[in-house]
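Reopening: structure tokens for the 2-phosphoglycolic acid complex, inputs below.
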Amino acid sequence: MTNKYMYFIANWKMYGNINSVNTIKNVIKISKSKKYKKSNIIYCPPYTLINEFVKKTKNSKIKIGAQNCHTENNYGPHTGEISSKMIKNLGCSYVIIGHSENRKNGDNDRIINLKIRSALKEGLKVIFCIGESLKERKNKQTINVLKRQIKKGLNKIKNLNKIILAYEPVWSIGTGMVLKNKDLEDQIFKIKKLVPKKVKILYGGSVNPKNITNLSTINNISGFLIGGASQNSKKFIDIIKKTII
Ligand code: PGA
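Re-run output (same inputs, fresh job):
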């Protein structure tokens, strides 16, 4: 597409087993080719596979991220939880925070803000997800919702160069429904005005090899957060190849 650095972030959600790491070998291969040197490929596997992914991608420029973290950065008495220190210690450089699937499970703006702070404290970069629900969209609340999520999520956060914003309309995740180009471009433009210039904006929601050619023409998008299609290396590679031409 362009000469700018593009992000391709694979969000594996609660999928994958101990053998899954072997499926990414072709992605590692293309990440090493000159043509794709302007791509930032980041895998966010479930916690259970982070170690395997870190080992497998060690000699490549692929980076690894977690899909969430606790509000406290350090160790502590929190059964079943993982802190940003632990994530960093495993070799991750990124963490997804504020995904709508976690917001649905109780992560409100304040909790998300605390999680972002904890991640930054440990030197992780944050993939900060925002997005409106279908109801909010129908009620013409989209921009207000995004404004609130950004304002509260990034409250008192200074190192904004460590934040990547991922715009993921909730109704678009895993549904195959994507905004029309013009509407998405307008939306991204509005979001851009809400954050400093240095904050990169990604799009997420049903990105796949079929719609990527179209999506990659949209202005001001610095990359994609990809769920379903990223678990299939052939599809993931297809998305990268069709974006960076
Ligand atoms: P999807 O998921 O690509 O399967 O829609 C995106 C996401 O949830 O980050």
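The two ends are 5 Å apart (CA to CA). Residues 11, 168, 173-174, 204-207, 225-229 surround 2-phosphoglycolic acid (CB under 6 Å). Marking as resolved unless the reporter disagrees.
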